[in-house]
Amino acid sequence: MELISIASAVLIGALLVWAADPAPDLGPRWAATVLRVALGASAGIGITSLVFLFLDIAGEAGPLTIFGSDAVLLAGAVLLNLRKPAAPTERAVPEARRFRWTWMLALAFGITALIVGARLLQIAEALPVGQWDAWAIWNLRAKFLAGPGSSWRVAVSPLLTMTHPDYPLLLSSFVARAWKASGTMGALAPLATAAVFFSATIAMLVSAVALLRGSAAAVLAGLVALSTTPLLVWSMAQYADIPAGFYCLGAVALILVDAASSGSRHWALLWAGLCASLAAWTKNEGIVLLACVLVVFVGVIAWRQGARAALRQSRLLFAGCLPGIVLVLWFKFFLAPAVDPLVRQGASGVGNLLHVGRYLEVATALVKEMVNLGTGVGHPLILLAILLIALRWQVEQRERTALLIGGLVVGLMLLSYCGVYLITPNDLAWQLQTSLGRLLLQIWSSALLLFFVVLRNVADAAPAVTSANKAAAPARNKGAVGGRKKAR
Amino acid sequence: MKQPSPAVVSAACAAVALLSLWSTVDFYRATEDLAGSNADVYQIGAQAERFRELAAALPASGIIGYVSDRGTRETLGTVMYDGAQYALAPRLLTERLRQANTPWVVGNFSKPMDVAGFASKRGLTVVRDFGSGVVLLRKEPAQ
């Protein structure tokens, strides 16, 4: 029953994404399908976890109401698909992206994924309870949410002095949903959830790069991601960092996809906003992401195209962000107490900003964690350096604005982490050692995506400017974020 | 900017593919401990069985008192508390005995000791000793 409830959530999300296709005219087809499934799985998890929480608070959570609400959501998603206008049958794949060795790269990716997958299964079997924060925070709070009667209140109780009752509830709520639906509290639900988020992260990265830069670049991005040792190690730890990283990647990827798409409906921006919302419902860092996505998007578009264009283009993004804003306000002000020492210290943390040594300590830790992203000659930074030196970079005009937005969002996220470390009232060395590596993973896949979009096409021959390319250019520029050129 | 030749592109891609495969082998080696039989270094998985009988004697939910010979300011004490809390959730364990809404108190001890003496100093009585350092205690009625 645990797996059925998880599969049901994934199906609901996938059908909703199919109904509001974020990339209706981009190819290759396999990439569009993979992107929809990855986005759908994570969106479905987010949406159903929220429905469960409301049922729980109302005292109505049980197998019947969980599967009943799933049935209603499924019916609604099917209805939306039936009423959806016919999608274009052609998906454009530019000639300039053809690469004769793509199949060999895909083979290497397949072998790598198999080896990694086998090892992750062994890790899951050896450590079904996950690592420290899994049993001390995320799954513990899931047990409270899955408990009888009003046990859910314990998940936000100030008595949970070591369990951060003010942390957002997406992951705990989704695991609790599976437990409540099955009537057991086994390891399968948190493990399967972790596996879904890890797979979705790789799938989103590969499919987004494929849609934006072609299959060869996509497979290379997947290979670099699978060479990131901490990403693999933490994937089955059952922490919220991998889900938060997925939603960050989703938000950035969908803003880029929207810029590349020539469709008239910018559903990608709605999903980008929803990803930011769900990030805010996953971890406190996600709240920063939500703010960054909204402010940077509106700010950059206003700067490059004017305030009116910014307001017009950000409508769907804002619609996606709205649930996150409402949820965060409700959770932080009405449900969960502010017990985090970082928040409760008031203005005293500002004094820490005057200590030069703290800047040095944070910078040193940052470099150390970058080095820890991999081992030996297969280190992801070495792989990226090889690609950058060999292929160099090429930023397409229509993607500049979206790239600027993505880069600013990721950069601001990194700066916010550093800022929190600078003012933290906790022991800085301990805090850096226990969390910086995981925080970097939250933005790592987004940084990889941006890298591969900036990288020159992986192709047999240099792209020639043909009459067909010229003719296609105006159509591409209809994209919301990519509309800069047209506006001029 | 000069465009790279197809040979350079192919060589770079081949290098990345081979080095990624190498990195995967490294990952396999580096995670031997994590995938081995001693992966659960804090023995959290074993706590469910250790507290199984005690859990049956407790109400299914509510705030239960918690005492231990190891304080939660030290790592071992934190691990013991977190392990017990995870095994006994959705009950909430608290060291603030006055805030517990049931008379029951969970005793979690790291070594054999005089539990009765430990309990009486805190106004508690021993209800049952389940072995392995797991004891059910009860708050004495206020005088």
Provide an overview of this structure:
The complex is a heterodimer of chains A (488) and B (143). Chain A is mostly helical and 488 residues long. Chain A is built from 21 helices and no strands. Chain A is globular and about 65 Å long. Chain B is an alpha/beta fold and 143 residues long. In chain B, strands 2-1-3-5-4 form a 5-stranded mixed beta sheet. The N and C termini of chain B lie far apart (87 Å). At the A-B interface, α4, α5, α8, α9 and α17 of A face α1 and α4 of B.
Q: Summarize the biggest pleated sheet of chain A.
A: none
Rg measurement of chain B, Å? 26 Å
Termini separation of chain B (Å)? 87 Å
Helical content of chain B stands at 40-55%
Q: What overall geometry of chain B do the principal axes of the alpha carbons give?
A: elongated
Summarize it:
The complex is a heterodimer of chains A (488) and B (143). Chain A is built from 21 helices and no strands. With 488 residues, chain A is mainly alpha-helical.
Which short descriptors sum up this protein?
A: 488 residues; mainly alpha; B: 143 residues; alpha/beta; five-stranded mixed β-sheet; 5 helices; 41% helix
Give me the secondary-structure topology.
The complex is a heterodimer of chains A (488) and B (143).
Chain A: H1 2-19, H2 29-57, H3 63-82, H4 102-126, H5 132-145, H6 170-182, H7 188-213, H8 215-226, H9 229-235, H10 241-260, H11 267-280, H12 284-305, H13 307-313, H14 315-335, H15 341-344, H16 356-371, H17 380-391, H18 400-423, H19 428-454, H20 467-476, H21 484-487
Helix pairs in contact in A: 1-2, 1-3, 1-6, 2-3, 2-6, 2-7, 2-11, 3-6, 4-8, 5-6, 7-8, 7-10, 7-19, 8-19, 10-11, 10-12, 10-18, 10-19, 11-12, 11-14, 12-13, 12-18, 16-19, 18-19
Chain B: H1 6-30, H2 44-50, H3 52-57, E1 63-68, H4 75-88, E2 92-94, E3 104-108, H5 115-121, E4 124-131, E5 134-139
Parallel strand pairs in B: 1-2, 1-3
Antiparallel strand pairs in B: 3-5, 4-5
Helix pairs in contact in B: 2-4
